[in-house]
Amino acid sequence: MPAPEHAASLEEQIDQWRSYLRRRQAIQPVDVAELEDHLREQIAVLLNAGLAPDEAFLVAVKRIGNLDALSREFALEHAERLWKQLVMVPSDSGEPQARARTDAIVAFCLAVAAAVAVKIPALFGLQLDEHKPADAGFYFRNASLFVLPFLTGYFVWKRRLHTGTVRWLAVAFVAAVVFANVYPFTTAGHTEKLTALHLPIALWLMVGIAYAGGRWGQVAGRMDFIRFSGELFIYYVLIALGGGVLTLFLGMIFQAIGINVGPFIGSWLLPCGAAGAVLVASWLVEAKQSVIENMAPVLTRLFTPLFAALLITFLATVVLTGRGIDVQRNVLIAFDLLLVVVLGLLLYSISARDADAPPNAFDVLQVVLVTAALLADAVALWAIAARITEFGFSPNRVAALGENGILLVNLAWSAVLYIRFLRGRGPFTDLERWQTGYLPVYAVWAAIVVIVFPPLFGYI
Amino acid sequence: MGINKDLIAASSTPLVLAILAEGDSYGYAILQRVRELSGGRMEWTDGMLYPVLHRLERLGYVEAKWKVVENGRRRKYYRITRKGRAQLAENRRQWQTVDATLRGAWEALSVKRQAAEPAGA
């Protein structure tokens, strides 16, 4: 019989062995349990044969064999385990599984609620129909209000937010409803479009506050929200592609029996599906967190060199050929979008970078990309400035100019901080803090566009 | 005596199936039985049995069930299925053929040697 203190140390050793084994992806908890049973029986036999507990442990572990070779065998037999699996987290302990199920049910119910919300205005005679531009305008202005309150609600529930915060979020959404609907917009006018485009940006901050829970004040909390936003976007695009295929087949097979499902698709499937998919995609991003690698940083790695090459080629062409930018109406918007893409590339490479790692070649590439984007934008602004008076200050142009300014300031200071980091004059965290601290600026500008622009420009 | 890894791997399926055909069993006991049968001459690395068992389970030759045994420990028991028995019969036929062929070859070799010895003497 082993003495009690021996038994305790033996249990400790088995615990260590078990946790070491669990780190291997190909060997799952259920297999570890089977192997542990084996180990214990072997130890018992060896103890009976008169070995000391630690000797018995060593011999038993040795007999199980080399763990690398063993996990290789397991990997060959269970190749699927090397592909990280998603959705229903297989877990042998009941409690997390129950929580995951509740989470799924709540997300699904909220998705249904968002889909229903889209159809509520129809009860009051507002139809989503291209022949009724006034009604269509209502839907566009309020599009984010059908979805984002439910998404915010999901995170309020999930993160158990304080009632104080919830009250502020509610106030923000009520204000959004008011500003989207009280102004006497010209039907299909510029200010209406600006409101439709900028309200979601302003409200996305509310989602962020709810998402971060109590961590909105911290760099890490905001960074998590940035990661969430990127993954959500990718998941949403994937779901939209799947939905597109579904819709295509729906149309085709009903066409075959002579039934036109076009109206059903246009007024039910697309709007309700688009609204519900936001909730489903958010739930997926939450559920798969830590199960699957983030996709956004991978795309960033892929496209940063390509965009850098594109911009450098563009600048070189401008310099060599002396061509000026042909200032069309949408050139400013095009350059705004370019800056958004560059900012996205920068943001998602920052989000995936280990802040303590020393500078490497990819960091240099990032600086090249940002600098090239700044130069290209400067060229565009130069061309526009020359003719801005000629064009006049329409609401679209002022909004685009404001956005350009905001992005320019962000990228310029990012470039400064990045160069400082490359030269060893500052920590990488400065860059993180700058980016996360800048998040409210976008929302504030979007709110200004929503609140101030319509009266300023006479609701045109 | 060491036995070639490929031979161990090739014989593992019929051996495990044959042991399970004697009665339901679990990993440790199966290994004990292998030692008994081989007189300790076939050395398996203990852990390697489990991927083999899982493969047989995936192929439908055995089925597994968790049972609670003494002092509350959970243990995974394996049972041979009808498909497993058919596979065992098939394996047995093949191994007997191999065995018979090799035996013939050994005999021929020793006959030749016996024939050669008197001539050389």
Structural description of this entry:
Chain A has 460 residues and is mainly alpha-helical. Chain A has 3 domains: 4-82, no CATH class; 104-291, no CATH class; 293-427, no CATH class. In chain A, 78% of the residues lie in helices and 0% in strands. Chain A is built from 16 helices and no strands. Chain A has helices at residues 4-22, 29-48, 53-64, 67-77, 94-123, 133-159, 163-181, 190-212, 219-256, 262-288, 296-321, 331-351, 361-391, 395-422, 429-451, 453-456. In chain A, helix 8 crosses helix 15 (429-451). The longest helix of chain A is centred in the middle third of the chain and has 38 residues, at 219-256. Chain A starts with a helix and ends with a helix. The model of chain A has no long low-confidence stretch (mean pLDDT 87). With 121 residues, chain B is α+β, with helices and mostly antiparallel strands. Chain B has a single domain, classed as Orthogonal Bundle (Arc Repressor Mutant, subunit A). Chain B has 4 helices and 3 strands; from the N terminus they run αβααββα. In chain B, strands 1-3-2 form a 3-stranded antiparallel beta sheet. In chain B, a hairpin with a 5-residue loop joins strand 2 and strand 3. Chain B is elongated and about 70 Å long. The two termini of chain B are 33 Å apart. At the A-B interface, helix 2 and helix 4 of A face helix 3 and strand 3 of B.
